[in-house]
């Protein structure tokens, strides 16, 4: 249930390009989620990627730390996403600030952002 297996990692260049070209966005500062429906070939309902800007965190150690926090927060809140989607989605999470938030704050923002995503999906 609380897993993030390798098959859920977003690696396809074409899917990533599609995310940036035609994806929709949900934000809850300092997090941003870009998503697009996809045609899944391997029966995975979600493909997830995370990104932390090199502009805000020059050291790779810091970027990797925040990417770990984003992945962990997603992993624990994944069920909320799975409950609302009716088709496979590719999703990219972005950490968009220089502020060094702790895990509890990031997790809280992730939950709020998922609620906004649910609302956006249900009202379309």
What general form does the structure show?
Answer: globular
Please report the distance between the alpha carbons of the first and last residues: 28 Å
Any idea of the CATH class? Alpha Beta
Counting DSSP H or I runs of 4 or more residues, the number of helices is: 3
Number of DSSP-assigned strands:
4
Summary of the model, kept short:
InterPro entries: Ribosomal_Su5_D2-typ_SF (IPR020568), Ribsml_uS5_D2-typ_fold_subgr (IPR014721), RNase_P (IPR000100). With 124 residues, the chain is of the alpha+beta class. It has helices at 13-22, 60-84, 103-122, and strands at 24-28, 31-37, 46-52, 89-95.
Structure report:
There is one protein chain. By secondary structure, this protein is an alpha+beta fold. It has a single domain (25-122), classed as Ribosomal Protein S5, domain 2. Helices cover 44% and strands 21% of the residues. It is built from three helices and four strands, in the order H-E-E-E-H-E-H. It has helices at 13-22, 60-84, 103-122, and strands spanning 24-28, 31-37, 46-52, 89-95. The protein has a four-stranded mixed sheet, with helices on both faces. The chain is globular, with a radius of gyration of 14 Å. The protein starts with 12 loop residues before the first helix and ends with a helix. Its EC number is 3.1.26.5. This is Ribonuclease P protein component. It catalyses: Endonucleolytic cleavage of RNA, removing 5'-extranucleotides from tRNA precursor.
């Amino acid at each position: 249930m609380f897993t993030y297996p390798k098959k859920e990692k977003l690696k396809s260049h074409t899917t990533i390009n599609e995310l940036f070209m035609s994806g929709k966005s949900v934000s809850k500062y300092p997090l941003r989620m870009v998503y697009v429906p996809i045609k899944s070939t391997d029966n995975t309902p979600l493909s997830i990627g995370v990104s932390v800007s090199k502009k805000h965190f020059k050291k790779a150690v810091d970027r990797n730390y925040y990417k770990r926090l984003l992945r962990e927060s997603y992993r624990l809140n994944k069920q909320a996403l799975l409950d609302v989607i009716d088709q496979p989605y590719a999703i990219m999470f972005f950490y968009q600030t220089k502020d060094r938030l702790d895990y509890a704050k990031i997790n809280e923002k992730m939950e709020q952002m998922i609620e906004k995503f649910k609302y956006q999906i249900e009202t379309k």
